[in-house]
């Protein structure tokens, strides 16, 4: 599936996404994951650091969805597809470097926000994250626009005028 530049831009602006997977009994597991890379061809690399529910669920059932929303713009998307676990040792160095750059940017932003006096976490949780052993590679098969229909209609009217 081909992803639009607008959709790629939207997801790249998010600090994290909510990933949903299914356990062996059909129960939904939701967890926050870091988005490492999203490509026009619909492949997405996600960081999973803890080898817990999502990891075990994907070994048994490859169905996955990821959701991101922007409360301020009242916009969001859910991407559905299949995923697999990719050992970090087989990944190209540039994919790993992308995550390291994103992590450094998050730490920098947290430091700047703390200097500005914005309330947040009293420490820098990102520096305590374990080193990744694997990534999740998702291939998108469906895009769901979560923007309420009346807002989409209003935007379309504005574009037509």
Q: Helical proportion?
A: 25-40%
Number of helices: 4
Instruction: Provide the β-strand percentage band.
Output: 25-35%
Written as H for each helix and E for each strand, in order along the chain, the element string is HEEEHEEHEH
Strand order of the largest sheet: 1-2-3-6-5-4
Which whole number gives the mean pLDDT? 84
Number of strands: 6
Q: Assign the CATH class.
A: Mainly Beta
Structural class: alpha+beta
User: Radius of gyration in whole Å, from Cα?
Assistant: 17 Å
What's the structural domain tally?
A: 1
CATH superfamily: Electron Transport, Fmn-binding Protein, Chain A
Q: Can you tell me the CATH topology? A: Pnp Oxidase, Chain A
Q: Report how far apart the termini are.
A: 31 Å
Instruction: Name the overall outline.
Output: globular
- Main sheet characteristics: 6 strands, antiparallel, barrel
Please tell me the CATH architecture by its name: Roll
- Runs in which pLDDT lies below 50 for 5 or more consecutive residues are none
Name the descriptors.
alpha+beta; 32% helix; Pnp Oxidase, Chain A; 161 residues; 4 helices
Task: Explain what this protein looks like in three dimensions.
The protein has a 6-stranded antiparallel beta barrel. It is built from 4 helices and 6 strands. Helices cover 32% and strands 34% of the residues. It is an alpha+beta fold. The chain has a single domain (5-89, 131-160), classed as Pnp Oxidase, Chain A (Roll), CATH 2.30.110.10. The longest helix is centred in the middle third of the chain and has 23 residues, at 93-115. Strand 2 and strand 3 form a beta hairpin.
């Amino acid at each position: 599936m081909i992803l639009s530049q607008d959709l790629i831009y939207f997801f790249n602006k998010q600090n994290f996404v909510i990933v949903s997977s299914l356990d062996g009994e059909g129960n939904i597991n939701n967890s926050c994951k870091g988005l490492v890379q999203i490509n026009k061809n619909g492949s997405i690399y996600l960081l999973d650091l803890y080898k817990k529910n999502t990891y075990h669920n994907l070994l048994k059932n490859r169905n996955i969805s990821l959701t991101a929303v922007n409360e301020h713009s009242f916009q969001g998307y859910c991407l559905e597809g299949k995923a697999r676990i990719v050992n970090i040792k087989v990944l190209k160095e540039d994919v790993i470097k992308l995550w390291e750059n994103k992590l450094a940017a998050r730490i920098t932003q947290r430091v700047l926000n703390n200097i500005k006096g914005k309330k947040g976490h009293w420490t820098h949780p990102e520096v305590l994250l374990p080193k990744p052993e694997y990534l999740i590679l998702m291939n998108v098969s469906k895009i769901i626009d979560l923007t309420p229909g009346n807002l989409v209609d209003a935007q379309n009217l504005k574009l037509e005028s």
